[in-house]
Design brief:
The protein contains twelve helices and no strands. With 257 residues, the chain is mostly helical.
Length: 257
């Protein structure tokens, strides 16, 4: 009698069996290989197209933002200056419009954002917000400042400052103070002092003299001793004239009344 416990030997996968498997599934296998190849090619073409678009957007951005720089030359790169100290900067509204809307064959900042989207330089929304701030279109300035998103803390602080300046002009002093304080929290001490100064101005507008005094005192005690002379050649003479000690004395006098 045969032993029922003896297991059958496993079937050996012969070359013929393997060949039969590939023969039966050849369409599926070749289809998968073709899809992989197409995916690799499509990915390469997309990457190359994206890089081309980024390069093109950067080139157009450089041309457009040059109009902003021309309109406010002494404030280039210093968007943290409070708007109330910009009266004597010689703003050129036509240049600002050219920056936003383009001129001739040049594409403006708004059109660049519309065409290139996320492939446009990350600073473009900050530039648009700055244009609108200088033009007095404060709601638009706030809107584009809010769209600005970057890991660069310095540029983020500038966007918050633009927003704060626009809010100041709209009488939104609570919001402006919050924006300036947020800006101060993102940068080193040297620049933070300027944002705190603006926050102090907002506090005064709110009637919070004690809050303003605390901020002026913090600037004097914690930050640069030559705060009032940081930008002697910036053209913002009115700004530099605001001496911290005099502000402290003035607010202390008001609180004593």
């Amino acid at each position: 009698m045969a032993n029922k416990n003896v297991k059958a030997a496993p079937a050996v996968e012969t070359p013929e069996v393997k060949a039969d498997f590939f023969t039966r599934n050849s369409k599926l296998i070749y289809g998968i290989l073709i899809l992989i190849i197409i995916g690799v090619i499509a990915g390469f073409l997309y990457y190359r197209h994206a890089e081309k678009m980024r390069t093109e957007a950067a080139s157009r951005y450089a041309v457009a933002v040059a109009h902003l720089d021309q309109a406010v030359p002494q404030l280039t790169g210093n968007a943290q200056y409070p708007i109330q100290f910009r009266q004597a900067t010689g703003l050129d509204s036509l240049e600002l419009r050219n920056a936003l809307e383009g001129v001739g064959d040049e594409m403006g900042l708004l059109a660049i954002v519309d065409k290139y989207g996320s492939r446009a330089p990350e600073a473009i929304n900050l530039s648009i917000a700055s244009c609108y701030l200088h033009l007095g279109e404060y709601e638009n300035a706030i809107s584009y400042a809010d769209k600005y998103d970057t890991e660069d803390q310095l540029l983020t602080s500038r966007a918050l400052s633009v927003k704060g300046n626009a809010q100041m002009q709209l009488g939104q002093f609570d919001a402006a103070k919050a924006s300036f304080l947020a800006a101060a929290g993102k940068v080193d001490e040297d620049i933070a002092a300027e944002y705190l100064f603006n926050a102090a101005l907002a506090s005064e507008e709110l009637g919070d003299l004690e809050g303003a005094l605390a901020l002026y005192t913090k600037i004097r005690d914690r930050y640069s001793n030559n705060y009032d002379q940081r930008y002697p050649t910036s053209g913002a003479a009115e700004y530099n004239a605001w001496n911290i000690e005099s502000q402290i004395a003035r607010v202390e006098t008001l609180l004593a009344k």
